[in-house]
Amino acid sequence: MADEPSSRAASAPAPHYALPSLCAELPEYTNAEADAIAQAFRSGNFCSLKDIPNRLGCGSVARHRFRKVLKSREPVAACGSYSRRSAFSEFEYIPSPYSMAESIRRQERLHHESQAERFGGGAWRAAGSACPLRHEAFGRADGFSVYQSEPDPFGAAEDQALRQKWLQDAAILAGPFRPAGRNKGRAGESSSELPSGSMLPEMVQQIHRQLQADWSLPFVVCSTEDEHIVIRVELSALDAAPGLVAYMNAFARSNHFVNAYRLRRTVEDWNVTPGDGHLYFTLRPPWVRSTSTETFYSLHPEQRAWGPRRQVAASGARGDTSSISLSTTSGRGEELPLGT
User: Disordered: where is this region (predicted)?
Assistant: First the structure.
């Protein structure tokens, strides 16, 4: 009967916290050492290379880690204070006189004077009885001395060049010189800087050279009596006339030489075929003046006769007996009396 309580206690189930866990029942993870070594060589690891033993063997990494865990569980003794005093350290106070610097300088001066009396026997005097002036040579028979007060010739030349540059810079008050004149360009150019009639041969050569570089057609570029620049090409040599017309429109609008010489295309004589087997393009220089009415009447010749007739009618209504010049499409004027 006495053995019944002990047998019951032995057969009683263990509480849940005393039961073995799943991790305890599973076999030991055999690849833990390889993972620890790999983690030590990876970036952002928490394992250091110093935690890996120097000699690797079966279970050496696990034993080293186990010893590190046991060592970290040991209590660490509190380190004591290394300083003897918690306040400022004591030092011996040695007073210094206020006149120490003066006494040191006095001792140095007395030492120098004693040395001078010992080796010289008197005050120092320069050799010779004559006292040389500042501009005279000192110690050399050729007359040159680096101790002379005369300026260095090389430095004087540099200073003179610098002063000349200052004078030239001061003379420039408002940019480069431009002659006066009422005729100014769009960018503020003076009359001498604008294209003139003397540059007409140069314009013809530049335009002809540019056209020959872009086309293989026999272009003829010349100037007229009224100083217009005419570009002529044979129609028989053209494969596609619209292509040339489009090129000439872009040429007159965006070519470098055309814009530099301020050339403008003449609308009434642009892309004209008068019937002689040639195609003409005309450019107007900036010094040639043209009226907008002449351009309009050239493009619309039917309107040329209506203008004078309206003037005739208006003059007749006012009772004007003068005559008015009636222009024809050919450009010639004809005197007509008001009674006609």
Answer: 178-197, 308-340
Strands 278-284 and 264-272: antiparallel
CA gap 204, 263 in Å, rounded = 11
Q: In whole angstroms, give the CA distance from residue 226 to residue 184.
A: 23
Cα–chain-centroid distance for residue 152?
Answer: 42
Query: What does DSSP say about strands 333-336 and 278-284: parallel, antiparallel, or unpaired?
Result: unpaired
Estimate the crossing angle of helix 60-73 against helix 32-40, to 10 degrees. Answer: 80
Structural contact between residues 279 and 254, judged by C-beta atoms closer than 8 angstroms: no
pLDDT of the residue at 106: 93
Q: What is the spatial distance between Cα 230 and Cα 285, in angstroms, rounded to a whole number?
A: 11
3-state secondary structure of 146: coil
Predicted TM-score (pTM) of the model is: 0.37
Res 328: pLDDT: 32
Domains, the chain, with CATH or none: 25-65 (no CATH), 197-290 (3.30.980), 302-336 (no CATH)
